[in-house]
Write the structure tokens for this entry.
Amino acid sequence: MTIMSATMPFVSVEGYLSYPELRMLIGGEWVKGVNPDAQPVYNPADQSVLGWLPHADHKLLGSAVDAAAKGFEHWRFTSANTKAELLLRCADLLTQRQSDYALLTTLEQGKPLTESVGEWDRVIETFRWHAQAVEQLEDISYQQNGQQHRTYSRLEPVGICAGFTAWNFPALLPARKIAPAIAAGCSMVIKASEETPASAIALLSAMVDAGLPDGVVNLVFGQPEIVSEFLLTHPQVRKCTFTGSVPVGKKLARLCADGLKRCTFELGGHAPVVVFEDADVEQAVAQLASFKYRNAGQACIAPSRFYIQRSIHSQFADAFTEYSNSIIVGNGCDPATVMGPMANSRRIIAMQELCNDAQSQGARCLTGNGLDVNDLIEENGHYWQPTIFADVPAHAAMMQLEPFGPISALNAFDDIDTLLQQVNELAYGLASYVFTQSRATADTMVRHVEAGGIVINSVAVMEADTPFGGVKESGYGYEGGMEGIDGFLHKKLVRDYLQ
């Protein structure tokens, strides 16, 4: 594999796969840290150990911040053309290495290879788009006719940024933080997920090989509480960007409060789906079911609460169940697999708890619930069958908590007022989906659904060139688009009376 720079060694794991020796990137150097075997990294398909992950202590974290400070002093004044060229070279290298990197992502995260390839497609798209966008960053003039002075806002990077990413999209989530940060002229210390480290290491390896200056991006791993507290209370760190759960996001926000650090938080969701009786049911089922089981449902924008107009509820439920029963569950490296394992044992426990609670409250299980799953897959993996419940009470945990797995709740609705109350009653507000052939109905939903994004008759909500962010407890700030870069910039107002 061409995963690392030539100086980086590899380790072989039994059988058909290779996995890199795991290290951290600090000041342009790949380091093992003081405890190079601190944590095993498991393959969720069979729980085999892929490698051993080093952790950073306070000294190494301090070195990472110092390196980022030096990198920032250089990078902040780097020309837009140089930044764009670096981003494009990185995208080119990622394209060359995509198949190798996709295999790494599947091995450590579990998703099917086709999905991993698709994730790296999004990474490449993210870098290419930001290469174009950086050329558009210009000072903003407020000059009026007749003024004898100049008034403008000078765009300046905010400084050193701390990034924290989750395990469900281990390549894309770091990319969506790193690309806008370096486009804006910032430096970064990023803590990627300890459960899926090789994908982030691969990304940074390509950046180093593309010519990333030392210290501009630094990659660390460690105990999350130790790393976050050190970075977010450090006076030189000026911004936090995080993708993950609501509880963790609140903890990080508290750490940022004393230093009044800027924050971008993309947190959890519990995406409502509304299917009206005039919708194309076949089209809705095909799109929603495919999107639901992507990454085994482990996505904050995955559809999870389904509200189906009563006249078509049975038709939709039957079709959705038939589709779900056709899903092939197995090892992500198997070309026949449609849905891979869940990322860890915690998710299996969570699925069991949600399903047991729903059944105890009278919900009907239409399919799944983990029954006979071991007949379908090899032993020891973290597998769960696509699972569907109907008639789930509103107070059931499945309707209140983000499932983050291949579980769907299908409930019927009659009138739109009650529907909107149910859709908006949760503290979440990230993605939402509506299927209808009526423009008036679609416009009503767009106006009244409380969400960071809403998609009509499709499921594609996030792209590199468009801003996306949550409302309510699903976070604040934006990733994607020029607004995503804007979160890493300060607009310094200049009034210049020099003649």
Remarks:
- The CA atoms of residues 368 and 387 lie 4 Å apart.
- Confidence is low (pLDDT under 50) at residues 1-17, 371-377.
- Residues 10-267+474-493 form a domain with the Aldehyde Dehydrogenase; Chain A, domain 1 fold (CATH 3.40.605.10).
- DSSP finds 14 helices and 22 strands in the chain.
